[in-house]
Amino acid sequence: MYRGRFAPTPSGPLHLGSLVAALGSYLDAKAHDGEWLVRIEDVDKPRAVAGAADTILNQLEMHGLEWDGSILYQSQRDSVYQHQLELLQQAQRLYQCDCSRRAIRARSAHYDGYCRSRQPRSNPFALRFVNQNPVNEFNDRAHGIITDHSASVSEDFVLRRRDGLYAYQLAVVVDDIEQGVTDVVRGSDLITPSFWQLTLWQELTGKQPGMMHLPLIMNDDGRKLSKQNHAPPIDSGKVSHNLLTALNYLDIDLEPELQHSSATEILQLALQNWRKKWHITGR
Question: Record-annotated residues binding Zn(2+) (predicted)?
Fold first, then answer.
């Protein structure tokens, strides 16, 4: 059974770019007669803004994007991530690294494996994954075959940070596997991390999820619309307008008259168009 997810970071309310990602993942899950989960990715605890998670969930509900099952919060799963690190440590797939970012940049544009044979380490240290068999290619439903043989993709990436926090690369893969996610639909800014995550998927399960990276929304300066770039939050008083605008970025153009329709009506039409666009017959 298809199972997708939307996994926002609670560093602020949804903006148009995050609504596009939520809507695309929702439509793809429902078009496959599957489940759509919502996960709050607050593993980077200092970035989480108080009340932001509740705001995001409320915005999703107001736009008719109803999720299946309960919400998973990464900030509550330290013991799960630690257990996985211990298993990888036992399999000799981790090592300690006390290199600062400045030291790494002084040697190379990417991490060069400097600490693989430098045990023991001084504190603080990160834990890096021994990336012996990197995934350099995957089939993306929106982009086709994506290949990257750069040093960035092949580097030993961090699974626990020097500050003791669990890395996004670890948390997202462990959670996707535990939640039974079959397909990952998200923004194209995450293509490079996808190589690392698929490598970890391969290590932990021997398989990989389906991948689909959606178009990015740019601001007037040509930068990705994001909270870091001060993207304005969506106006929840303009639900129909927001949905139609997001659908336009997903290359689904519905009639302007639908500005006065309900979220349910717009999503039903959007679902029909999504199935046609991506040749999905349902299950």
Answer: 97, 99, 111, 115
